[in-house]
TrEMBL record:
Keywords: Repeat, WD repeat. InterPro entries: WD40/YVTN_repeat-like_dom_sf, WD40_repeat_dom_sf, WD40_rpt. Pfam families: WD40 (PF00400). Gene3D superfamilies: YVTN repeat-like/Quinoprotein amine dehydrogenase. This is Uncharacterized protein. WD repeats lie at residues 390-423, 483-524, 671-696.
Length: 761
């Protein structure tokens, strides 16, 4: 059957020059070494064909692959069909140069051994341009202090002899390398080998942040020819600037007899990073107008500590109580050379809350008298006759800034503002003072579904409406900035920590990313999941990529790595039974099952659903699983997200990411909302049972089960939303909790006696 297959070769004479036909990724850069073989099935059989190249002098046991064929084997084709094979010579089959050899192209059927044919071509092997070649697949690398990074190198032996090649890396500190900076490789003629150098800059501020140039030299034992490759290792800025105040409370009059109406705060700053920092102290303009004198900026070299003095001048009133004023002092870090904000180094903490107490000239005890009864009567009247301002169910509440305000959104199509009174002895029913509407029903025309506050504590909130509109509101100025106007219902919103991005979750299953620094009304990125979205949460830190957690109908949870444009699907499961030493988890994914709320803080993700479950996930573990998946993609040489316009959707295999779970707190009734304190030590939940429950989320977990929480309040109406913040005053550590319900109420509670709130000890 040799005559039953026909082969047509596009070229009869092939030129090949080593080191000039292929780059490191086997991408063809010279077409002289490639040709096509067109195979025609002239038999009466359905057959698949394969092409093989043969030439004299090739070692059959050699592992060197000297040609490539695409496809390797064609699919079964009917009689009369044609298949084109693309052939490329990628290495010299024999290590003899400036010669021409015959190459036999053998075409044969995989199924029928008598169905074959062959063709002969000439292959001219030219002398290589050089006998030795060294390449770095990645010439520019970035590393953080303490991180171990691999510097990969590929060496090609283009000579006709077996060669020992010596590699030497120079230009970087020898102490950074594990395994030294020398490598010896023994390479067959025409072959290549990969090796690498392991580099780990020490985690100290003596290793400055900058670009370090290095060189890899290569020499062989068979030739005086040497070659080299140059790379750049950039040490990324890392570390923090420690910000402290030695005297956080000042009282006027001071003991200073010459200037009794002046107080000075000592601000201590230590540069515990590896880059030069310019430190600026910032204060609200309101305080600058009232006698605060801001110190000039200072420059800090790595490891340096300096003290800045913040002065305040205040006049004492004749009458009244002592005035206690809390104000935030923030630190801004910039590059001393460019003046640009530093995006890698952050102050810790970012702000210090300082206290100024101004005593009246006449002691307050002399002013008390009979007027004491008036506020008591007013307080009793408010207690007996609380006023309701909303006229529809309250869907979302948020503590704004340092918990000085509460913003609520309702089905009555309004957004309202409330002043917080967090005094130690104040009655909870009078902790909120109504300050009016931020947005009226005539402005919105649809129910307000969600309210989220800016992470910058600047009084800015984002609102999502049933109409699909997204708005930004400055609660101080009562000014609106429209972000998006559409028809896709908005169920949740999430800000990035730097306030640059706002993410919105919609009923259509879309998550839209909005760049708030731009005026465009179009999203900068869109992710799509195959379920209605009811909740979003964002987790960010300086090391790991930012992640958006997406949840909703069918109890589905997905994680969007929006930098890499990958969406990972993660199983959400319930504990259904307990064995002596382990738990049995089971996914619950009915049409009527859905996740109602997400909250993140300090590497904890809190999840609630309408079956009454509260679950805590370990965000660090999720990051580890995603990083492992990304490394596997690189090892398999699979294209990264940069080659894709839309997001990839993948199932993420991950174990041991569930910290705890409970369905007992709300009697298995739907849990509508959860929130975490800033340090994730406390969790608050509300639901259809009308209870507000405070959980110790970090230290009362036993065998995956959250222990019983503390009931803060009970009511006979469904609670829709909750928020929490951990605070501290001169008397106690405490938390503030605000809630919104179906009876149009917005409430605030103070829980005292939260010991060691700042450190969760």
């Amino acid at each position: 059957m040799a005559g039953s297959v026909k082969a047509i070769v596009s070229k009869k004479v092939i030129q090949f020059t080593p080191d000039s036909s292929y780059d490191l990724s086997n991408v063809i850069v010279n077409e002289e070494n490639e040709f096509d073989v067109n195979v025609i099935n002239e038999s009466d059989k359905f057959a698949s064909f394969q092409v093989e190249l043969l030439t004299a002098g090739v070692d059959e046991n050699s592992h060197v692959k000297w040609y490539s064929i695409s496809p390797e084997v064609c699919t079964k084709k009917p009689p009369g069909s044609e298949t084109t094979f693309h052939v490329a010579i990628i290495k010299a089959p024999i290590t003899v140069y400036d010669t021409t050899i015959d190459v036999i192209i053998k075409i044969f059927s995989v199924e029928y051994e008598k169905l074959y044919t062959s063709q002969k071509i000439s292959l001219t092997i030219n002398k290589p341009l050089r006998s030795l070649r060294v390449e770095m697949p990645i010439k520019e690398l970035k590393v953080t202090l303490g991180e171990q990074i691999e510097i990969p190198v590929i060496v090609y032996n283009l000579s006709p002899k077996f060669t020992e090649i010596q590699l030497s890396l120079s230009g970087l500190n020898l102490d950074w390398f594990t395994g030294g900076t020398q490598r010896k490789l023994q390479i067959e003629p025409g072959d290549s080998k990969k090796t690498s150098f392991l580099c780990q800059p020490p985690k100290d501020n003596q290793t400055l942040s900058k670009e370090y140039k290095f060189i890899i030299d290569a020499g062989s034992s068979t030739s005086q020819y040497t070659t080299r490759e140059q790379g750049i290792l950039e040490v990324i800025p890392s570390g923090v600037v420690e910000f402290n105040c030695s005297n956080k409370q000042q009282i006027i009059p001071t003991k200073e007899t010459k200037h009794p109406n002046s107080a000075i705060y000592e601000l201590i700053l230590k540069n515990d990073s590896n880059s030069l920092q310019q430190v600026n102290i910032s204060l609200s303009e309101e305080y600058v107008k009232h006698g605060f004198v801001i110190p000039e900026a200072v420059n800090l070299i790595p490891g340096e500590t300096k003290t800045m003095h913040l002065e305040v001048n205040n006049h004492r009133p004749w009458l009244g109580r002592r005035k206690r004023q809390l104000f935030e002092v923030s630190v801004d870090l910039t590059n001393p050379n460019s003046g640009e904000p530093n995006t890698f180094i952050f102050p810790t903490p970012n702000t210090q809350v300082l206290e100024l107490i101004v005593l009246p000239i006449i002691p307050f005890i002399l002013q008390i008298g009979s007027a004491v009864l008036i506020p008591l009567l007013l307080l009793l009247n408010l207690w007996l006759h609380p006023k309701v301002y909303h006229t529809g169910a309250v869907n979302s509440v948020r503590l704004v800034g340092k918990a000085g305000k509460v913003v609520s959104g309702s089905s009555d199509q309004t957004i309202r503002l409330w002043q917080v009174n967090d005094g130690h002895w104040q009655l909870d029913i009078n902790r909120l003072k109504y300050e009016g509407k931020i947005a009226s029903e005539t402005e919105n025309k649809k129910a307000v579904r969600v309210i989220r506050s800016s992470p910058m504590d600047d009084g800015v909130v984002a609102a999502g409406l049933d109409s699909g509109d997204i708005q930004l509101w400055d609660t101080l100025k009562r000014e609106q900035k429209p972000v998006y106007s559409g028809t896709d219902r908005v169920f949740d919103l999430a800000f990035s920590q730097n306030f640059r991005y706002l993410f919105s979750g919609h009923g259509s299953g879309r998550v839209r990313q909005w760049d708030l620094t731009k005026t465009s009304k179009q999203p900068s990125n869109i992710a799509y999941v195959k379920f209605a979205i009811y909740a979003l949460a964002i987790t960010e830190n300086q090391i790991e990529p930012s992640l958006i957690f997406i949840a909703g109908r069918y109890n589905k949870i997905a994680v969007w790595d929006w930098n890499r444009k990958i969406i990972y699907e993660i199983p959400y499961e319930h504990i259904v039974s307990k064995f002596p030493k382990e738990f049995n988890f089971k996914p619950v994914m009915g049409q009527q099952n859905y996740i109602t709320s997400l909250a993140t803080a300090n590497n904890i993700l809190a999840i609630s659903d309408n079956q009454g479950y509260i679950t805590l996930w370990n965000v660090n573990k999720i990051h580890q699983c995603i990083n492992k998946e990304a490394i596997q993609q690189i090892d398999k040489k699979i294209n990264t997200n940069k080659n894709f316009i839309s997001n990839q959707i993948k199932s993420l295999e991950c174990d041991n990411y569930v910290n705890a779970q409970s369905s007992q707190g709300h009697g298995k009734q739907p849990v509508r909302s959860v929130a975490l304190t800033q340090n994730a030590c406390y969790l608050v939940s509300v639901g259809d049972d009308g209870q507000v429950i405070l959980w110790d989320s970090k230290y009362k977990i036993k065998n995956f089960l959250l222990q019983s929480g503390k009931i803060v309040a009970k009511s006979d109406t469904k609670l829709n939303s909750v928020d929490i913040k951990a605070l501290k005053d001169d008397k106690d550590d405490y938390v503030l909790i605000t809630s919104g319900d179906d009876n149009y109420n917005v409430k605030l509670y103070r829980i005292n006696g939260i010991k060691d709130n700042a450190n969760c000890k």
